[in-house]
Amino acid sequence: MNDATNILEDLNDRSREVFRLIVESYLDRGExxxxxxxxxxxxxxxxxxxxxxxxxDLEYLGLLDSPHTSAGRVPTQMGLxxxxxxxxxxxxxxxxxRAKINATMGxxxxxxxxxxxxxxxxxxxxxxxxxxxxxxKHEAAIRHIEFVSLxxxxxxxxxxxxxxxxxNRLFTPPAGxxxxxxxxxxxxxxxxxxxxxxxxxxxxxxxxxxxRRQQIDTLARDMxxxxxxxxxxDGQEEPxxxxxxxxxxxADTGQADELERIRVLFDDLERKRDIVEFLGLAEDGEGxxxxxxxxxxxxxxxxxxxxxxxxxxxxxxxxxxxxxxxxTRLNYGRIVPIVDYTAxxxxxxxxxxx
Length: 354
Description:
Number of strands: 10
Domain Heat-inducible transcription repressor HrcA C-terminal: 115-336
CATH topology of the largest domain: Beta-Lactamase
GO molecular function: DNA binding
Family: Belongs to the HrcA family.
Distance between the termini: 39 Å
Protein name: Heat-inducible transcription repressor HrcA
Order of helices and strands: HHHHEEHHHEEEEHHHEHHHEEEH
Keywords: Repressor, Stress response, Transcription, Transcription regulation
Shape: elongated
CATH architecture of the largest domain: 2-Layer Sandwich
Strand content: 15-25%
Number of domains: 3
Number of helices: 14
């Protein structure tokens, strides 16, 4: 990223303008840009041959690429990154977009899940892309936990929280579990976790397991550790990743290779077990972050971009994230303020409700 910024600083005014016009045209139309088109837009009058020479220089620097046999150029991932970091102009949030987002959050319902579902739908509708919403973990104190065996390879954990919230989660127990080992594991946990949140209980139980490994049999210990994995978000419903607008991405492309990349993206989303990584993308600082192509750790195979921002509770603690994903030619200048506003609004609403 720093290398790209240095290259931008070294470009002369003509090269910088040619580069900017190519990227802006590509983001707008999704098509290669030729020298003749650029000569009509440049602030100085130069020949198409001069523009072609500049384009070749930019291609040599790794900022542009020539798709197939086209005489036009498109930005590379490095070029898009340089544009986003150094030349992108962020527009103000459009009042129509603001109104659409606000309209989805007017309900006084205490259903946080329903609120975030509506947020995802609004983001998808406003941006015409796919939206991602990572819902917050339930951090109320626990009153009781119980394990229920359903079959040899299926069990249910029932969590009862002090605020009356109840969650039932299916999971696959370690081999060899018996009803008695499950009861022993539940009794062990209930003696320790009452009045603690899941995060607090997890830290404390890890310590307890270390100190008391000899006091519980191997099967019960496996159950405790399995339960901890569930609480930590590995493939279970908490935290939950909401995806809306898949059809927007599928309808936005007419090329088979583009369509395949989008399909890969959603296959990745649907099978992704460690979705907490999505929140990790946004945790390096407040505000909106942009991940282009392979920079995007979750979806590097899709050739897509992710614009993501965390949202926070009243204590300024990051508890979730919202984002928009689409082709690398996203309208970043418009998408960034939409994601930023939505994240701030969600944070305020959840803080008010708590």
